[in-house]
Specification:
By secondary structure, this protein is an alpha+beta fold. It has 25 helices and 23 strands. Strands 2, 3, 4, 5, 10, 18 and 19 form a seven-stranded mixed sheet that branches. Strands 12-11-23-22-21 form a five-stranded antiparallel sheet. β11 and β12 form a beta hairpin. The N and C termini lie far apart (97 Å).
């Protein structure tokens, strides 16, 4: 057989094979599209795949030595899965679940801003986000903007918008919307309504399960499992909740909570699920990007009836990163305990704050507030906390500003030396009265006689600083205030206010909002020089100011964050380096004159000698007595504020302290708080419990 014949046979064989394959494929297609096409089409239509989010644990918060401040606790939660959920009977199911959970001693969240008992009233103002979200929800579903009246606002209640409804009518409208029968008692209907509204506003859907209750006990879990036929779509899952390992630093650590409907647009853009827990205040909020874990996902296959045909975890959740703070929680506890003891023992005193910073880095070691509260028992104590007119949740250390009083004088002294209007040997005479202005006489608390700068600081003489301030002028005082960071936010990681720095520029800004104020006058200059006039400074700013004097003129940006570690502590995600906010570039000799004079305040004859005379460590301090006008923050109480700043050791500074006692009188009254802080820092603390050495921070 020649080659042509062999080639022909091979081509014929290949053609036969190809024809056979084509025939098989055609038969398969005929079977798929013609014989079984309708069946496969229905099956495809009935097959649904959805992705459920699996939440991740938040990262932990620790102090500078690795001692836990906020960690996670494993708990069981009740979750509704949309694919299984019995929507037809959901009102009955919700009521039975609420009754079971309440009888087990577990709190069932409620979010409607309406009192629980009749006569019903709103529990918030009309501009509150919770209220505006509620009325927007009703208006949207009523079709108000489209001219519809689906929920009967116009026909039943005679109003065109939900904001015109009273609280009782809002409840009636929602009951109708959710088809809650009148056969339920008023109390039971309200419970159902609360949960239906929660489900709606949390976007309960195939892709978003609903978290009904957290931290449920095992006996309740067993009962729900036993009644699984009734509670279809009700699942019990292991999750984590925040555990507070300290009662201290509540305002700094902050809280977490659910995403509110009015916040959803912001969080949605960042890839959050509506059931995610987010930071609401403090470090929990400011460090959210690190603390937040990476959610996992679970693929769920269902048919058209909702029957689940299969599940598969497509991505495991990853816990968030761990935040190492600059706080020394033992020093924080000393500061809080001492602040509470001293302030509560002063007649007329209302509250206060104490801040401790490291002189050479700006790290905040402690930021104490009084009154305060415990995050661990916040829910149980919430009624008492909310009813307390002194607002325990308020972070006085960062978010309240006070006149600094005489603690302002070291800065005026330095400004006077630097600007050449005084020298260390400039002599003035204090005979109690300052008579430069014929229209008004200003006074000093004492009759100090002939004095130089050191004695003026030691005795806190107003006359000396009236004259120094007059020679400087308002604009120069304002310049130096800006150098020390007054009237500016410090850049701390949690919420703060800027306060104000007195001077002609700031007064002009005030006049824009209140034209009835007086123009800046020479009398304002001398008042500003002793820490009065328009000066208001936060305790944090005062601590940074003291640290700047102590370290030779470098103002650091204060920080609460030392580093961020990965969830397993295997790597450093972020390391915080000291940030210089301002170099003052003052003559070291002038700074030494001022800080040496501050040392004399603690010596015999100084205003803080009662607390610090013969203290074993050299310290530099300044007391202040700040007048104020009362007002809403102080219920009209015009008792002087007690103010104190200091640093130690004076010859080689490590820490700076600032303390304010609201309506507590003279600065010497709060000096014992500073002594307790210095004692705790320098005389040693109890042995520390720390995390492994590879990520333990050093003092």
């Amino acid at each position: 057989m020649d080659n042509k014949t062999k080639l022909l046979h091979r081509l014929i064989a290949l053609f036969v094979v190809l024809a056979l394959f084509c025939g098989v494929s055609a038969a398969g297609l005929y079977s798929l599209q013609i014989i079984n096409g309708e069946a496969y089409r229905l099956q495809a239509e009935r097959h649904l795949t959805s992705t459920n989010v699996v939440s991740a644990a938040r990262g932990e918060i620790l102090d500078r030595y690795g001692r836990p401040l906020v960690t996670n606790e494993s708990v069981y939660s009740i979750r509704f899965d949309y694919a299984y959920w019995d929507q037809k009977n959901q009102n009955d199911i919700l009521l039975q679940l609420v009754q079971l959970v309440i009888s087990a001693g577990v709190d069932v969240p409620t979010i409607l801003p309406i009192t629980q008992q009749a006569p019903y009233t709103f529990t918030c103002s009309a501009d509150d986000k919770v209220y505006t979200a509620l009325v927007d929800f009703i208006d949207t579903h009523n079709g108000t903007e489209d001219g519809k009246d689906t929920l009967g606002l116009q026909s039943k209640y005679g109003v065109s918008q939900a904001k015109d409804l009273d609280a009782a009518s809002v409840l009636e409208v929602l009951k109708a919307y959710y088809k809650i029968s009148d056969n339920y008692t008023e109390s039971n209907a309200r419970w159902i309504l609360e949960q239906r509204y929660r489900m709606t506003t949390s976007n309960f859907s195939r892709t978003n399960p609903f978290l009904f209750a957290e931290n449920v006990p095992m006996d309740l879990i067993a009962e729900i499992k036993e009644r699984h036929e009734l509670f279809q779509g009700v699942n019990v899952e292991a999750s984590t909740v925040r555990k507070y390992d300290t009662d201290c630093a509540a305002q700094i650590l902050g809280r977490t909570g659910i995403i509110y409907a009015e916040e959803w647009d912001t969080y949605k853009e960042k890839g959050y699920s509506m059931n995610d827990i987010v930071g609401k205040s403090g470090l929990e909020m400011s460090m959210e990007q690190y603390l937040r874990g990476k959610s996992g996902s679970l693929m769920v296959d269902t048919d058209v009836t909702g029957e689940v045909t299969g599940t598969m975890e497509s991505a495991a959740p990853q816990p968030g990163d761990n935040v190492i703070t600059t706080l020394d929680i033992e020093l924080q506890k000393v500061a809080e305990d001492s602040l509470a003891r001293v302030i509560s023992g002063i007649s007329g005193a209302r509250g206060g704050a104490a801040v401790v910073v490291k002189v050479d880095t700006g790290e905040v070691l402690a930021a104490a507030n009084y009154p305060t509260y415990s995050q661990a028992t916040f829910l149980e104590d919430s009624a008492a906390i909310n009813d307390n007119p002194l607002e325990p949740t308020r972070n006085r250390a960062f978010q309240m500003a006070y006149p600094p009083g005489s603690t302002f004088k070291p800065m005026i002294a330095l400004a006077g030396l630097e600007e050449g209007v005084i020298t260390p040997n400039t002599i003035m005479v204090c005979n109690h009265y300052y008579t430069r202005f014929k229209s008004r006489t200003f006074t000093c608390l004492g009759w100090h006689g002939t004095e130089d700068l050191t004695k003026a600081i030691q005795k806190s003489c107003n006359i000396y600083f009236y004259e120094t301030g007059y020679r400087l002028g308002g604009a120069t005082i304002e310049k130096w205030s800006n150098l020390f960071g007054f009237g500016q936010k410090t850049g701390i990681e949690v919420g703060e206010i800027a306060g104000s720095a007195a001077g002609p520029t700031y007064r002009e800004k005030m006049l824009e909002n209140n034209p009835l104020l007086n123009q800046w006058q020479p009398g304002d200059v001398i008042q500003a020089a002793i820490g009065q006039s328009d000066n208001t400074i936060t305790p944090l700013q005062l601590a940074v100011y003291a640290a700047t004097l102590a370290n030779g003129g470098t103002r650091y940006q204060p920080t609460l964050i030392k580093s961020v570690k990965s969830y397993d502590y295997s790597r450093t995600v972020m390391e915080n380096e000291p940030k210089v906010a301002q170099e003052i570039n003052a003559d070291p000799a002038n700074l030494k004159v001022v800080t040496d004079a501050m040392q004399s305040v603690a010596d015999e004859g100084g205003t803080a000698a009662r607390t610090f005379a013969n203290y074993p460590i050299p310290i530099a301090v300044k007391t202040g007595t700040a007048e104020h006008t009362g007002g809403k923050d102080f219920d009209g109480n015009t008792n002087d504020h007690a103010v104190f700043i200091g640093f130690a050791p004076a010859d080689d500074p490590e820490i700076a302290v600032a303390i304010v006692g609201e309506c507590a009188g003279h600065g010497s009254e709060v000096a014992p708080i500073a002594r307790d802080i210095f004692d705790a820092y320098f005389q040693g603390e109890e042995e520390m419990e720390s995390v492994p050495a590879e990520y333990t921070m050093q003092k």
